[in-house]
Amino acid sequence: MNVANMKPEEVRAMIRRNEWIKPTSGMANGYTQANLVILRKDLAFEFLLFCQRNPKPCPVLDVTDPGSPIPQLVAPGADLRTDLPKFRIYYHGELVEEVTDIVKFWEDDMVAFLLGCSFTFESVMLNNEIPVRHIEEDRNVAMYKTNIPCVKAGRFEGPMVVSMRPIPEKDVVRAVQVTSRFPAVHGAPVHIGNPEAIGIRNICRPDFGDPVPIKEGEIPVFWACGVTPQVVAMQVKPDLMITHSPGHMFITDLRNEQFGVL
Amino acid sequence: MNVANMKPEEVRAMIRRNEWIKPTSGMANGYTQANLVILRKDLAFEFLLFCQRNPKPCPVLDVTDPGSPIPQLVAPGADLRTDLPKFRIYYHGELVEEVTDIVKFWEDDMVAFLLGCSFTFESVMLNNEIPVRHIEEDRNVAMYKTNIPCVKAGRFEGPMVVSMRPIPEKDVVRAVQVTSRFPAVHGAPVHIGNPEAIGIRNICRPDFGDPVPIKEGEIPVFWACGVTPQVVAMQVKPDLMITHSPGHMFITDLRNEQFGVL
């Protein structure tokens, strides 16, 4: 089964039938995958404000109408209650369960947010022959808490989380250029070169994900990371929050290139 | 008095003292001006969703916390109740009053939206020596209702309003390029060339603003227009809505170039 060449609706149908309960990386190549955050309406406005004020870590691709599980903008034929391989259920900020659909958790006042994910800009980097170390090494990307404050919105506040990729010196300018084209999926880096300047003490010890080696002639480059909104939302301890499980993303009908601003 | 070279905070202080009750065009050159829409919180989430789904006509620059008149992101020293030369008060979608400050209208649950405005990309065009006809002729820009539907959000729906600028054939490509850099202020055009294709019957009869001549060798180019959210909001007939008066904009602390994505 060649999942790389399947269409998004085919992948989603397979996931809906519980025939694929694995990470989505490498599926429906060229199509944009997204992070999922679901909150009740009473928190949704503050969370949307938070995303609007912090577009680099929280690039909004779609927000559903309250009560509707249909992402009208990015996949009108999909259902967010069933079309991701795995979900996480949090009560009061505590992970209590991991499930393959959320039909029985869905409520009439829920609002689902789909946020851009770094898979998109990594595929753009690879298309430009810029190496992506954690893909080469088949690990999770290295992620760090920083001292860069997000802009507060209501109860939502906290530091930005970044992901790091070691980039060969000769490719750093190109990496800035090609990722800048995609503000809807984190866009340009937030920092180049000096981890301490953004509050990272030990580059070998990421706060999330796996460490990757930085080779001779490479520079650590940092991008705003989609883990940020989840970490921040967790601190608010919402009565109920639902997210995708890490790596088990939602696959949209839109191609990566359609998010290029130029 | 050289208002073009004044700093934004100087201009706003003058406006706050009611010493300038005129349009803001040409003031604090190089700094971004913004449209204002104020709604009560019960409509604010839907309106923010509408903007998020329709970023070309409704590019959000800042949204205040409910009850706060301070635009923290774009001008933390400003007060939106006093720092615009003229405001319009609408009850149930009807214009009832035009005032120079809204201190007595301000309520604890109000949310203010600052939306990008075409002044910014016009200055970018001028810097690239692309002529802007209505500026040359000292008229208001020509605006038209189209058959392009906005994406609905709750009670907010309606067609996109566009502004038209006649561009010399040789400059059309460059006009697309330079405005694409600024998605926060309407960005790239939505249509080039054929008014009928987007539902405009008579190019000589704009729905808002003034007609401008299209000369030999020029092509009409259409951009999404910031009048769209006001027209759409008016149809919802909110109990109370406050906006800037046309041309009497809010001047932010940010320079136009700071909104360039690349």
Automatic annotation (TrEMBL), chains A, B:
This is Putative hydro-lyase GCM10011571_27860. One of its GO terms (molecular function) is lyase activity. Pfam families: D-Glu_cyclase. It is an enzyme of class 4 (lyase). Its EC number is 4.2.1.-. PANTHER family: D-GLUTAMATE CYCLASE, MITOCHONDRIAL. Transmembrane segments: none annotated. SUPFAM superfamilies: PSTPO5379-like. Keywords: Lyase. Belongs to the D-glutamate cyclase family.
